[in-house]
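Quick log. Single chain, no ligands specified.
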Amino acid sequence: MVAGVNFLSALMQASTGFGYALIAMPLMALFLPMASCSAISAVTIVAIGLQMSWKLRQNLRLSTIALPVICCFATINVGLYLLSAFDELLLRIVLASLLVVVTLLSVMVRKVKGGVSKAWYYAAGAGLLTGLSAGMFNVVGPFLMLYYLNVCDDTLHMKASLEFSFLLAGLYSSIMHLFVYRNINAVVAPHIIASVSAALVAGIVGIKVFKRLDRKILATFVYILLPVMALILVLNGVL
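-> predicted structure:
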């Protein structure tokens, strides 16, 4: 079951550039404790990030990801604190609302100005929001996806930026799960192995799909799918 869920989630991630945690976390939570789901997800994100970053290494530009990633690290622990201090459903609603608002703003800016500029405050905002969502629910992709979609000059540059950002965020989260929260242990290890194996297979298939996607088609798909993902995030908390 873990392998199946993570194959599906990683296939979505590899094919579109995001969506792994938004699919994997709710489905795994149906039959595993949330802490275990978070640990499995964190390690699997590292595996996916390594695979994709290596395949797309020639398209990676560190200058694109530096500020968003630094800002992401600054708020991951804030997200972890919020998850422990506040009602989970409330946090899901807040995160989903932010996702919808930022998506709508991104669409409006894209129509008026042709896209979000590379100004530092856009990069910082995307990183700060990503850190909060990553700390709360291991959701790394949506806000960075919206930023990279608008500032990267081609889809492979965007994909490389996103996957390397996932890799760094996943490494941070994995270290926290291993040494601070002790969620990575002998009991969870078989699930992690199954998850990583399935995700790597899905990555091989998904990257071929992604390379065939037109930038405009991808943008339309993202703008439609993100609000749907926000709705799923809330419904999972209610149900």
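The chain has a mean pLDDT of 88.
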